[in-house]
Design a protein that fits this description.
The protein is an all-alpha fold. The protein is built from two helices and no strands. It has one domain.
Length: 77
């Protein structure tokens, strides 16, 4: 059975902690966690991580859009 390294949830960068939070949030909503992922069959691990990555990407895009919108509102004309 393959194991998932909890540190392989994305590249290190300014948003990596937030990305990890969203991945953990998604996994928790599915009754799993990064810690327990290694106990699941490999196919299920891959499926959950693929879906968690999609979820995290969408949430990060939402945060970025809100920040841009807020910046546009407050920018001098």
């Amino acid at each position: 059975m393959a194991t998932i390294d909890a540190n392989l949830t994305g590249a290190e960068g300014p948003q990596s902690a937030l990305e990890r939070k969203y991945i953990e949030e998604y996994l928790q909503s599915q009754g799993a966690s990064l810690k327990d992922l290694g106990d699941l069959p490999e196919e299920e691990q891959q499926h959950l991580m693929r879906e968690a990555s999609k979820y995290a990407s969408l949430k990060l895009a939402e945060v970025e859009s809100r920040a841009k919108f807020r910046e546009d509102i407050h920018a001098p004309s």
